[in-house]
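ARCHIVE CARD
Drawer: 12
Card no.: 0347
Subject: one protein chain, sequence and derived structure
Cross-reference: see card 0346
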Amino acid sequence: MKPTLFLLAAGMGSRYGGLKQLDGLGPHGETIMDYSIYDAVKAGFGKIVWVIRKDFEEQFRTQILAKYEGTVPCELCFQSLDALPEGFSVPEGRIKPWGTNHAVLMGKDVIKEPFAVLNCDDFYDRDAFKVMGKFLSELPEGSKGKYAMVGFRVDNTLSESGTVSRGICENDEKTHHLTSVVERTKIERRDGKVQYLDENDQWVSIPDTTPVSMNFWGFTPDYFEHSEAYFKQFLSDPKNIENLKAEFFIPLMVDHLIKTGQATCEVLDTTSKWFGVTYPEDRPGVVEKLAKLHADGQYPEKMF
């Protein structure tokens, strides 16, 4: 069974200033997600699912879905603040979405096969889709609790504009299974070495090949059941109700399943170089990089 690509597209991109998921950054008006879908289909993914907000469904269908007709099966699901388990309600004053793993939960009725989850506004590069597609396609039928994460080499995720935040991964050397992800909010190349600022305000050097999480995960369908159960625990914790900005993140869910022995998460090495648009100032650099990829023949003039 071919795996599914599940794209998280419910965010507005507030720092960027609009629907950056729909921004034509490629030389022929391509969005970043066009490249993800093109690379995913080449890597053997057989269906594309998006989670979006209901209020821009019409624009999304017109600008995005229409171009893929006849290329790959596509489906939509929707994230809303009140999409909660029975017995729970939205806390008074809450307007912030519940986070990435809540968005993933919205796909439970349309995804019945192994699937990859990723941001739709990040450029992950072709090799990342190859390694994840291979992992998911080779899982024995009916597999449960066998997950994966693309571990980008930290050197391939740095910014020329300043420090970046990344989840630095630790994994078992023999099994390559993830053991922990520690978020570091300031990482950059200093004095020729990749370094991060630790909790004691000390700069710590790490190898260029250190794996980091860029929110590119692979799951089997049982992940939805685990997520539903743990989301109820999350909503039952008073501090998550009192904090109107508390979010149910994918790493939180994966960490829980690893530590309770319910799943393993293999860290997949990739040579891919990540880039994305976080702020408006990032846009020209991304446009230039995409134009070069086309000029070098890595992508055709008409992708779909």
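Annotation on reverse: The two ends are 23 Å apart (CA to CA). Residues 115 and 244 are 30 Å apart (CA to CA).
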